[in-house]
Amino acid sequence: MSKVQVRTRIAPSPTGQEMHIGNLYTALINFVWAKKNKGRFIVRIEDTDRTRYVPGSEQRLLQNLKDFGLFYDEGPDVGGEFGPYVQSQRLSLYKKYAFELVEQDFAYLCFCSQQRLSELRQKQQEQKIMPPKYDRFCLKTYSKQQALELYKSGKPAVVRLKVPEDQVIDFVDEIRGKISFDSNLIDDQVLLKSDGYPTYHLAVVVDDYLMKINYVIRAEEWISSTPKQILLYRAFNWPVPKFVHLPVLRNPDRSKLSKRKNPVWVSWYLQEGFLPEAVLNYLSLMGFSHPEGKEIFSLKELIKVFDIKRINPVGPVFDLVKLEWLNGEYIRSMPDSVLKDKIILYYKNFKDKQLDQSLVAKTIPLIKERIKKLSDYWFYCSFFWQRPDNYQLDLKSYKDLILKMLSRLTDLSEWTADNIGNEMTNLAKQEGLSIGKFFMILRVAITGQKITPPLNESMEILGKDECLERLRLVV
Ligand code: GLU
User: Fold this and answer.
1) Angstrom distance (rounded) from CA 410 to CA 433
2) Could you tell me the distance, in angstroms and rounded to a whole number, from the CA of residue 201 to the centre of ligand 1?
3) Quick check: helix, strand or coil at residue 51?
4) Which atom of ligand 1 is nearest to the CA of 216?
5) How far apart are CA 409 and CA 402, in angstroms?
6) pTM for the model
7) Which amino acids bring their CB within 6 angstroms of ligand 1?
8) What contacts 301, CB < 8 A, 6 or more positions away?
């Protein structure tokens, strides 16, 4: 018997500018689970909430995935057997299924006005009825036939799910075990709005079924939606997929990851010079642990060792400091030429920082151990491209000393880091100055900065003429 192919999906809503780091985490786990099982990873755009729709957001979301190398097998721009993969292009389907439910008495038409609904809600709140629910006025008032006729005559209506009373609705979450809900606490959800658009609950179930999704892997915040969706699966008599609700990422103070405490948009990480592979590696450690306790491993290795059951549902902490450390480890393990290319590529986006290949290549050995992200390169190395325009130390009182440095270096026959170092160390001794202090003065005179890559090597790269000129500028 052939095994059923694993099909996972992410279903982002184009309601923001970009992908949230939490959604990238969800995408990663969906991707890895599909690849692990030689299945397929699908992207579907859930754009039925037109009030929150942000134009252009869909393209940015898809680009974000590609930037991180999470290529999908089916999706809006790559197509697939089960398309279209954008919900607003599937409206007639949802309508058909909603009315099927009405026919079979799993759902009903509701004509209540917004005003009536808000008055009802207010009354229930006053009476402390929790949670407030629709009172089924239309279900009690109209027979199915009457309701359908009214609808056909043009009266605006929504379709509501008829949530059964006194039932326990449960499902097994693959990492959390059995989760149960009391149906009496669930409102008769709107499935189809009066404008013909489905709500999330209907669209997600119809599409997950039609797209043959058998693993629904999504964030924890969707747990409370699951019983409503289970009711729909039961009503349609469709197989229920396996559910996995991933833990919500937290700030180091354990609050929910939010814009105020951590950067949340994935493009920020790339703009800051984090490497996509390091970000994915770090995200994979959120709730998951490598069986050998490793912290650094490739996506390929993750796919090999990954197991959904190893995910710990307790909110993992997303710590930028740890991510920086990990990113630095990736940088250090890279061949110099690869790092050089990445740095050049990264700075292509900055018009005022156009770097030339050969100079970057020379600086790589000096900074590889120091930088944690690509954007650190400029912090350490800008002086290679531009003469200092301010100095982190007041050099006025060291003019005599700098003149001596200038004269010694002018006479230096071979301009190598070793020669520069020896000559300057001798001068420091003759002047009775501590090596630390002496080199700090030289460092600031040449670079403007107190923190730089190793100075002698940097001076060798800058070249004799340039170094002498820079010393002349400060005396
Ligand atoms: N459209 C939902 C979202 O914005 C999808 C939730 C789900 O995966 O079921 O994340």
Assistant:
1) 21
2) 10
3) helix
4) 8
5) 10
6) 0.94
7) 11-13, 46, 204, 218, 222
8) none
CATH superfamily of 266-381: Glutamyl-trna Synthetase; Domain 2 (1.10.1160.10)
Task: Give SS3 for 10.
Answer: strand
147 Cβ contact partners less than 8 Å away, ≥ 6 residues apart: 102, 108, 109, 111, 138, 157
Amino acid at 172: V
Domain 387-473 indexed as CATH 1.10.10.350: yes
Q: What is the CA radius of gyration of the chain?
A: 31
Domain ranges of the chain: 7-76+202-246, 91-199, 266-381, 387-473
Q: Amino acid identity of 125?
A: Q
* C-alpha to C-alpha distance for 53 and 65, rounded to whole angstroms: 19
Q: Compute the distance between CA of residue 244 and CA of residue 176 in angstroms, rounded to an integer.
A: 8
Mean pLDDT of 242-263: 87
At 16, is the pLDDT very low, low, confident or very high (cuts 50, 70, 90)? confident
Q: Which CATH architecture has domain 91-199?
A: Alpha-Beta Complex (3.90)
Measured CA to CA, the distance from residue 356 to residue 173 in angstroms comes to 53
Q: Is the pLDDT of residue 165 over 80?
A: yes
With contact defined as beta carbons under 8 Å apart, do 119 and 76 qualify?
no
